[in-house]
Design goal:
This protein is mainly alpha-helical. The protein has a domain of 105 residues. 64% of the residues lie in helices and 0% in strands.
């Protein structure tokens, strides 16, 4: 997303991508700060449980995208969160095995319908349809993916919206 914002700002400013741009530097700082506020173990776990982010359609939209289980930062934070939710070793091992089956598309998660529906179903509907053989992971997905957006996310979208509509003469507002 930041690269897309950068391209738009540089295009608007008639600058080459290698040139310095104070406005982009300000915007980038805001975006990075907002990302760090919402990049928590719980957000990474929720992101990891959303089947859409494993779909071929979503991954093909941008060549830089990777499924959550392939992203080292998300993986580390997801595992931190799982350790907090499941302090008993046997429970943790079981949920990690279920997550591995989900992310690697094994068992019921590897059925053609299951794979295809990842990109078309609402996450809760998808888990309701395909999660029955993994009840602990399904319950966790329901809890996390059924939550409304946090105020932190709302602030981010508000900031992103302002950047999109901020008039050129308003650069000093940052």
């Amino acid at each position: 997303m930041i690269e897309k914002v950068k391209v738009q700002i540089y295009r608007h400013e008639n600058l080459e991508m290698h040139e310095d741009c104070l406005f982009f530097d300000c915007v980038n700082e805001i975006l990075q700060e907002r990302w760090l506020k919402s990049n928590t173990p719980l957000h990474c776990l929720a992101h990891s449980l959303n089947p859409r982010y494993y779909s071929d359609q979503w991954l093909a939209e941008d060549t830089n995208r990777v499924a959550p289980h392939m992203d080292p930062e998300i993986t580390e934070e997801r595992n931190n969160c799982l350790r907090k939710f499941f302090p008993i070793t046997e429970d943790l091992r079981k949920i990690k095995q279920q997550f591995a089956d989900f992310s690697l598309k094994r068992g019921i998660f590897g059925l053609p319908d299951s794979i295809d529906d990842r990109g078309h179903f609402d996450p809760i509907q998808w888990w309701g349809t395909y999660g029955s053989r993994n009840p602990e992971l399904k319950e966790l997905a329901f809890k996390l993916l059924g939550q409304p957006a946090s105020s932190c996310c709302e602030r981010n979208w508000s900031t992103y919206g302002f950047i999109h509509i901020c008039p050129v003469s308003a650069y000093p507002c940052f």
